Amino acid sequence: MSAISPTAVYEAIQAALRRGERVGIATVVKTIGAAPCDIGVRMLLHADGSASGSFGGGRADEQAIKAMQQALQEGRSFLTHIHIDPDEAVGSCGATLEVFVEAISPEPRLIIAGAGHVAQALARFAADLDFRIVVIDDRRDLADPRTFGERVQLLFGDIAQTIRELRPDASTWVVIVTRGHRLDEEALRAAVESEAAYVGMIGSAGKIRNIFRNLLKAGIPRERLEQVHTPIGLDIGAVTPQEIALSIAAELVMTRRTGAKGTGAPLKTLHHLIEEVAPVSA
Fold first, then answer.
1. How far from chain centre, in Å, is Cα 264?
2. Which residues of 112-133 are buried (b: 16+ CB within 10 A; e: fewer)?
3. Which pLDDT does position 88 carry in this prediction?
4. Which of 55, 74, 117, 254 is deepest in the core (most CB within 10 A)?
């Protein structure tokens, strides 16, 4: 591998984010000794495991790649030191690189199929959860900017076709809350045929069974339907559109924070702190 220019670095990062891919970045921020590279030199780790750039080759690059893999796995940034013995990297007689390692993720996009009361409430919740929100409906009277506000992109047209045109990717979440079974089925098919990271659909058990049967007959793999979050949301006894939207938003957070291993269970039941303070006598 050879060094890459700053312009090429930024172009590669932007291209990865547009594809919905995460990228690892390692930047030399300090050098000690006869370093084989200058301060500011970067390496990138792409979603397919390939790397761009170089800190001099050999074990220096291997250590940088390992650090970027850790950053992507843990979803955090950190400083690390790469120690280079003589002859381990081209142009070095022994050195230490102080490297800042970070993982950059694309801004998650939330596509809400349907613009009814649940969608309106969900958009309000999601706007504060760092989602870029797109709402789709074929009813112009509901796709009203005054209802959703300027933080939501509204699209009017055929719902399933618009989902396909948006090309959901690995940083896209799709929530289906349309007004009817046929629209739900069409929207769900468009969503599961995409690369969306999350697909959820509202509905009763009977409706979901029928839609699943139809999609299986249409050739949608069972494994893909197993990944659909439906009935959508966490079980909080929700009844009103606002409560249903809250249960959906909670599931979105829990699913997105996979590293936190959220269960959706009440925290009280997970810790039993009163038993630590006042154990029950035998």
1. 19
2. bbbbbebbbbbbbbbbeeebbb
3. 54
4. 55
Is residue 277 in some structural domain? no
pTM: 0.70
Cα–Cα–Cα angle for 216, 220, 223, nearest 5°?
Answer: 95
Range of the domain at 171: 109-260
Q: Which of 104, 135, 167 lies at the terminal end of a domain, its last residue?
A: 104
Q: How confident is the model at residue 244 (pLDDT cuts 50, 70, 90)?
A: very high
CB 4 within 8 A of CB 21: no
pLDDT in tens, 164-187: 999 998 889 999 999 989 999 999
> Which pLDDT tens digit goes with each residue over 98-110?
999 999 887 889 9
| 62 and 50 Cβ atoms separated by less than 8 Å | no
pLDDT tens sequence across 60-95: 899 999 999 999 888 789 999 998 876 655 544 678
Residue 64 buriedness (CB in 10 A; 0-12 / 13-18 / 19+): buried
As for how many domains the chain has, the answer is 2
Residue 115 lies in a domain: yes
Sheet with 42-45: strands ordered across? 51-52, 42-45, 23-33, 95-104, 78-84
